[in-house]
Records
---
Amino acid sequence: MQATSKLHQTIFRVVVSYGIAAGCLYWVFHDVNLRDLLQPLREVRWWMIAPSVVLDLLVYVCGAWAWQILLRPIGSVSIARATQAVFAGRFANDVLPVHVGYVVRIYLMSRWLKVKFTSVIPSLLVERLLDGIWLALGIGIAAIFFPLPQNISRIAQVWAGIIVFGLTVGGWIVLRSRSATQDRPRGFYNLGWIRKLRESTSHIVEQVRTVGRSRLVLGALAVSLLKFIVQALAFLFVLWAYGFHFPIEVQLAIFVVAYVGMSIPSTPASVGVFQVFCIAGLEVFHVAKSVATGFSLLAFVVLTLPLSIAGFIALGQSGVTLKEIKGRANDWRQESQ
C-alpha cells in the first residue's frame, strides 16, 4: 500500500510538472511565425555569448562560496567540493521536476562532511533565504516602476510574498530565545513518529539559529549579492548579443522577470516557464512576440546547457547516482517517521 501511494505521488508530480511545461511551450509557439523567429538569430553577436557562459558558471561558484561559509559551523569543506555539490544539484534540477537538486546537494555534503542529513539543511535554508532578499527587492522595484502583465505580476508578487514570509520566519527563529521546556516533550508529543519529527525539526531550527546569529551570515550575504550581480550580467550579455539596446534599468527589469521564472520550483530546468516569463518581460517594452520567443530560446540554451554539462560531470565525479541519492533520501524520510 505504501509503495503504491509513493508511486502515485511520483506519477502525479511528473504529470503536473511536464503538463505545466507542455502548456507553457504551447503558449510560447502557437502564434509565432518561424521565419520571424529565426531572422534575428542570424544577427546575433556570437562572440558576446562566451562571456555570458563564463559568468553563468561563475554564478554557481559564488553560490558554492556562500554555502561554504554557512557550512563552517558543522565542518570544513573546500569551495571546490561545495561547487561540485552545487553543480551536481543543478544537473538534477535540469532532469527532474520541482528542483529536487537541493536533496542532491544536501546528500553529497552530508556524505563528505560525515554528518547527519538534517545537519546540512539549515545552511542551505539560510543560503536560499539570503538569495531571496535580492530577488524580492528586485521584484518590488520592477513592480513599482514598470507595468508588468497582470498574470506575471501576480505570480511574481506571490513568489516575493513567499520569500518575505520565509525571511520573516527565519528572522523569528534567529531572534527568539530557546524555550526552557523545549527538550522535555510530554504526552502526545512523545508518540513515535511525532517525537522523531519534532526532534529533527528542533535540530534544524537550532542550527538555523546558530548560523543566523553568527557573523558568517554577513559574509554569505555579501557573496549572495555578488552572485546576483554576476547572474544579472550573464543575462545582460545575452541581451546585448541579441541586439537589444534598452536603458540599463529596463534590461535589469527584464532580467528580474526572467529570473522569477528560473527560480520558481516547477519544471525540469524551468523549461517553458522561463520562456513565458522572459517573453512577458520583453513584451512589456513592446518587443514582438516572435523576437522575444527567439531570444528566450537562445537565453535558455546559453544559460542552461553549459550548467547541465558541468553538473553531469560533477555528479559523475562524485561517485554516486541520482537513484542512490533518491533511495537514501527515502530512507531518511522513513527514519524520521
---
Amino acid sequence: MLTKRKEAVLKAIVNGYIDTVSPVGSQIIAGNQGLSVSPATIRMEMAALEEDGYITRPHTSAGGIPTDKGYRHYVERLAERRDLAPREKENIQRQLRRTYLDQEELARLAATALPKLTGSLALITAPKATQLRLKRLDLVPVQELLVMLLLILQGTKIIRHLVPLPEPVSQQELIRMGNKLSDVFEGVTSAELDVTYTELTPLEEEIVDLARDLMKAEERLSYEELFFDGLSELFDQPEFSEAEILRAVLEILERRGYLRSIVEEVYTGPGVQVSIGGELQEASMRHFSLVIAEYGVAGHVTGVVGVLGPKRMDYGRNIPAVQFLSNLMSQVVGEVYQ
C-alpha cells in the first residue's frame, strides 16, 4: 500500500510523463506539484517506487518513467477524471441521433468522433443481436453447380455462403426453394431450425442444416466486425516516431480479426475497463493501453466502444469519453427497441 506522499510523487511522474514523454525528475516534481518536501526526499520516494515496481529509471540520478504497475495504480486511484465539455457532448449527440435506424452507420460515426476527443484510435463494433432470427433466405446462382446462400437476419445482418450443388438446378427452382424456406422459417432462431420438417426435399434439408450452422457460428462471435478510425490522431503521438512502435501498429491493423479477438478476450464488463501494456498478453500490444466499454440493450443487442492508444494516453480524459459514448450509443440503440 502506497503512502500519500508516494502516491503524490507517482501521480506527478505519470502526469509529467503524459505531458512531456520524458523522464520526470525530482526537481520538476518539487517545483511543479506543490509538495512541501525537498528534492532529496522526493528522490528517496522515487527510489522506493522503483524498488516496488511502480516506476523505472535508466540510472539512480535519472527521472522516473511509469511502469504498467504504476499506470494501473494511477488509473485506479489517482487519475482525475475530466468530463467532456457541453458543446462536445451536444455535437456528438446531434451526429449520432441522425443515424439511429442504421446501426452500422452509428458505429462508423462514433468511430469518427472519438479520436478527436481522445487522440487515440477508436475501436467500435456495430450492435449485435443477442439472439439471431431468420428474416429471409435466398439462393442466387453463381455457376452451374454453385449457388450463393443469402441468410438475411432480423436487424439487417446478412450472411453469405457458397454452396456446391450435386447437380444443376434452374434459377426458377432456386427462387421457389428460397421462397418456400423463407415462408416456413421466417422469424425462427438457430435452435428452432433443429426441428425436422418432413415436407422438405434432400437439397432443402441440406440448405436448412447449413443455415442453422451458419447462424450458430455467428452467434458464437461476441461482437460484430470492428470499425476503427483515428490513425492520423494516433500517429501524431510522439511514441509513433519510433519504428518499432509504428511497425506494431501496422501489424495490428493488418490482421483485421486480431483487434476484435483482443477485445473479446479482454472485456469482462460491466462499465469502462482499462487494460495496460502487458495486461493485454500480446507482445505486439505491450506499448499500448485499451479503454473499452460495452453498450446496447440488455437482452437484445450489444456492442463495444473503446480507444487504443499509447500507455501514456490521457486516462483522465479518455475514460470519461468512452463512458459518454457508451451511454449515448445505448440510448440511441434503445430507442429502436422501445
---
Amino acid sequence: MSEPGAQKRHRLFIALPLSSDVERALGQIIDDLSVAGARVKWVDPRNIHMTVRFLGDTDERLIPDLKKLIDRVVSHTRSARVSISRLGAFPNLKKPRVFWAGLDQETPLEGIVAMAEEIERGVQALGFEPESKSFKPHLTLARVKYPDGLDPLCRAVHDYTVTPIDVSLDRLVLFKSTLTPQGPVYDRLHESVLGAERFE
C-alpha cells in the first residue's frame, strides 16, 4: 500500500446491503430489545448490512482497483435468498461484545462464503493485511459499550422469537464510512449486482 499521507484516505468496507423492508423489520427487533435498558450502542437500522470485508483507512488510489475486484467477483456469483431467523452475540451471551441477527442455519451459503473468500484474496493482492477472522454471515444490531447490566438484554435476546425475515442478497457495495458525532454516515462508492436466478 502507498505511503500514508500521499493521497486522501477513506474508511472503506465491502458489504451486502439490505432492502428497506428488511431494515424496518430489524428496526422493530431493536425497538423490542431496547426496552431491556442496557447501555449498548444500537445500530441505526438504515445502516445495517452484511459486512463481507472491512478495509479501514484506505488510500483513495486503490478505489478503482477495489471496484474492478467487486465487478469481477460478482460476475460469477449468484444472488442468494436467505432468511433471518435467530439472534445471538459474539463471542457468546455470557460475555457479549456484539449482538447480532443471524441467518437460518439450514440456508445454503456456499456461494456467498466463496465470494467472501475471493474478496479476501483480492484485497490481500492489493496490499491489505489478511483478515484475522473468517467470514461469519451476520447482521450487527448493537455493540456493547459497558459490560455491566447486560443480563436483562441477554435474557431478552435468548428468549426472543424471530419471525423469519426473507432477505435477498443481490448486490455488493463498496461503502465509504464517515464518522460523525451523530454516528457513521455511509456513502456508496460502487455497487455491482450479483448474478440473478432469472437468467437461468
